[in-house]
Amino acid sequence: MIVFDLRCERGHAFEEWFASRAEYDAKAAAAAIACPTCGDVHVTRSLSAPRINGGASAPAPAGPCGLPACAGGTCQAAMAPR
Ligand SMILES: [Zn+2]
């Protein structure tokens, strides 16, 4: 079993359990995943991140180096000269 953090187009975040990544892909492709809050089937998978409370702005997913940019594939720390 694997859990994914999902978000609908209206911004509701929720979790769904799947047997595998392949099952998620199949259900997502078939629009078989509905938001429990509004029923929207246009859900996207968000990066799994630790629960952060009190964030005023959208939480930036942190990569292995701890910088938000790391998760976007443009890690400043990895490219910075030592
Ligand atoms: Zn929703």
Please give a structural write-up.
There is one protein chain. This protein is α+β, with helices and mostly antiparallel strands and 82 residues long. The protein has one domain (2-47, 60-79). The protein has three helices and three strands. The chain has helices at residues 21-29, 68-71, 76-79; strands at 2-8, 13-18, 43-46. Bound molecules: zinc ion. Residues 8, 10, 12, 35, 37-38, 40 line the site of zinc ion. Zinc ion binds at residues 8, 10, 12, 35, 37-38, 40.
Can you summarize this structure?
This protein is of the alpha+beta class. It has helices at 21-29, 68-71, 76-79, and strands at residues 2-8, 13-18, 43-46. A hairpin with a 4-residue loop joins strand 1 (2-8) and strand 2 (13-18).
Overall average residue pLDDT? 79
Major sheet size, sense and barrel closure: 3 strands, antiparallel
What is the radius of gyration? 15 Å
Q: Which ions, cofactors or small ligands are bound in this entry?
A: zinc ion
What are the key terms here?
alpha+beta, 3 strands, 82 residues
Task: Please give the structural blueprint.
Layout: E1 2-8, E2 13-18, H1 21-29, E3 43-46, H2 68-71, H3 76-79
The structure holds zinc ion (ZN).
Zinc ion (ZN) is lined by residues 8, 10, 12, 35, 37-38, 40.
